[in-house]
Amino acid sequence: MKRVIKWILGLAVFGIVCLYSLSIYIFGAPETNVAYQTDDGEWADGEILFKGRDFEGIVFGYELYKIVCQKPHLKLQRITQKPEVWNIEWWFDDFDEPKWLVPYTKPHNNLNGEKYYRPEGMDHCANKGVKPELLDIAGKRASEYIAKLQKTHNK
Predict the structure, then answer these.
(1) Residue 43 burial (CB count, 10 A)
(2) Which of 63, 80, 84, 126 is the 20 to 30 A CA-CA neighbour of 99?
(3) pLDDT score for 29
(4) d(CA 52, CA 87)
(5) Per-residue confidence (pLDDT) for residue 86, from 0 to 100
(6) Are 86 and 132 members of one domain?
(7) Are residues 21 and 56 in the same domain?
(8) How far apart are CA 58 and CA 52, in angstroms?
(9) Does one domain contain both 8 and 78?
(10) What is the pTM of this model?
C-alpha cells in the first residue's frame, strides 16, 4: 500500500512540474512587471508583460511626456522593488536588464497606491494631442536612453 501511495505522489509531483514547464513555454517566464514615475510625480506607468507592454514602451511614453509637457529636466524613477529571493519572479528576472538599472525610489504621493497616473481633465499637457513628428523624436530619445543605461552599466 505504501508503495502505491509513493508512486501516486511521485506521478503527481512529476505532473505538476510538467504542467508548470509547459505553462512557462506557452506564456513565458513569470517576470516582474515594473512600474515607473517621473520625479515630479505628474506621470507614472508600468509594464504589463503578458500584454506586450514592456520597458521600451514605458520609456517611449516617458520621453513623449517630457516633449509634450516641455519638461526636459525630468528623471525616470523605478517604483517597483526587486522581488525577494523566495518569490518565483526572482528566479526568472535578469537584473542586468535596463529596466532594473533605473534608480529606485518610493512612489510619489500623487499615485495614491496606483502604478499609473495621468491627471484628469484636458488642462494637463499630457492629455492633449501629439503631432506625428514628436512620436519619431520620442522613439529616438527612448532608444538613446536605453542605450545609455546599458552603456553605463557595462562600464
Answers:
(1) 26
(2) 126
(3) 62
(4) 22
(5) 83
(6) yes
(7) no
(8) 11
(9) no
(10) 0.78
Answer yes or no: do 23 and 42 share one domain: no
The string of pLDDT tens digits covering residues 113-155 is 666 666 666 677 777 778 889 999 999 999 999 999 988 877 6
Identify whether residues 3 and 16 lie together within a single domain.
Answer: yes
Shared domain check, 11 and 78: no
* Residue ranges in the chain whose pLDDT is less than 70: 24-25, 27-30, 113-122, 155
Which runs of E-coded beta strand occur in 2-129?
35-38, 44-46, 76-78
Closest CA to 59 of 34, 29, 27: 34
What angle do the packed helices 132-153 and 55-68 form, to 10 degrees? 120
Angstrom distance (rounded) from CA 83 to CA 86: 8
Q: Assess whether 115 and 145 both reside in one domain.
A: yes
Residue range(s) defining the domain that contains residue 5: 1-30
Looking at the fold, whether 80 and 90 belong to one and the same domain comes out as yes
Q: Which residue has the cell 542586468?
A: 96
